[in-house]
Each structure stands twice: as C-alpha cells, then as structure tokens.
Amino acid sequence: MTQKPNPLSTIPVSGPIPAHLARSVIEETLRSAILDGRLPCGTALRQQDLADLFGVSRMPVREALRQLEAQSLLHVVAHKGAVVAPLVEGDAAETYALRILLESEALRLSIPLLDDKDFAEAARYIDDLEIQTDYAEIGRLNRLFHMTLYRKAPNRRLLKLVEGGLWEEERFLRFNLEAMGLGKLSQEDHRDLLRAAQARDIALTVTKLENHLNRGVEVITRYLNSLEPQGKKSST
C-alpha cells in the first residue's frame, strides 16, 4: 500500500528557533503553508507533531494555532484537534453579510482617526493592485488595503474579527481569483472608497463599502453556483 505523503514534509525549518520568537515563527510559517495550499483543507495539525517539527515545546505551538484559529484559517474539531479550514465557510452570502456589519463598524470608528500617511499607504496598495498579475499577491494587497482603512478603530476585538474575515477572503481569492476574473474589477471601488474616506464623509464611505462587498458576494455566489453539479442545482 502506498503511504500518503505527510503535508508537514512540505514545511522547511532551518535551525533552532529562539524561544522568544517561537510562537510568531510557527504562526507565520503555518499561515504561509495554508495560504499557498501546502497544507490543504481538512489537514489535521497535531501539536506534538508540530512541536517535533519546529524543535520547541507544545506551548508556542498551542499559541500559534490559537492565533490561526482566530484568523479563520483553522478550526478545532473534536478528536482531531486543529484542522485547516475549508476555503468557503458555509453560505457565502451569510459570510459577507457578517463581514459587512463588522467592517462597516470598524470603518466608521476608524475614519476620524486616519491621517495623510494612512491615506497615502492605502493609495499605494491600490496602485500596486492595478499592475499586479500574481493572484496570491492580489489577495494579500486587497487585505492590506482594507485593513489600512480599518486599523485605527479603537475596538481591538472588533479588528481581530474583521482581520479574520479578510484572511479567509485572501485564502479563497488565491485559489479562485483567476477563474472568477475579479482582478481588475475592484479597483474603481477601492478608489471611490478611499476618496470618500479622505473627505471624512463617514456615511458615504460606509455606503460605498457596503456596495463594494455586496458586489463581491454576488460574483462569488455566482461563481460557486457555477461549480455545483447539475443534479444538485436542479434539486434545490
């Protein structure tokens, strides 16, 4: 019988990790492996296996897994432990409805505290998105653009939830953006969003964000529906 390859074998670890950096190194290494598909959906990540791989105790591993769970990249499943989350969590429309609520509130709280440096950084991300052709990088830049507008919100718990949704979207876009043809379509939305934020028009900026996310969920839902088997479609 052919033995299934161990997904952890795709993760290179060079040399001992300093104790004070262990959690962040493990978190970043596993996040990259999840985002680029080396750790596929459904992969179980056992604490002891990871501790052995990185040459550390289980404590920093546990902390890293907790952070990745907060970013919606992992789920904790009974009898399996931490498992790499699916690309789409449940109903896309429900997911985006929640994102609209959370991101609108973060934007509302953040806009009065944003400064020219924040706006310039957001504009650079848009410029980079305009010329970027690598779909993994497009997903990353999209996340960074949105977080630049949200990050001044003083509610840190809210920001963690918002960022978790953006990590989930980045991962989905990495694997599906080319097929969806979304790469160039979102930049005018981003520029309109930035202009409204620079004008400090909170109501208009939130409305533009809601419209932007609603357009996104329409395209994603249409794309996901196109992937369903014909038999399943006809039965719904």
TrEMBL record:
Keywords: DNA-binding, Transcription, Transcription regulation. Pfam families: FCD, GntR. InterPro entries: GntR_C, TF_FadR/GntR_C, Tscrpt_reg_HTH_GntR, WH-like_DNA-bd_sf, WH_DNA-bd_sf. Residues 20-87 form the HTH gntR-type domain. PROSITE patterns: HTH_GNTR. This is GntR family transcriptional regulator. GO terms for molecular function: DNA binding; DNA-binding transcription factor activity. The lineage of its organism: Bacteria, Pseudomonadati, Pseudomonadota, Gammaproteobacteria, Pseudomonadales. The keyword Transcription regulation applies. It comes from Pseudomonas frederiksbergensis.
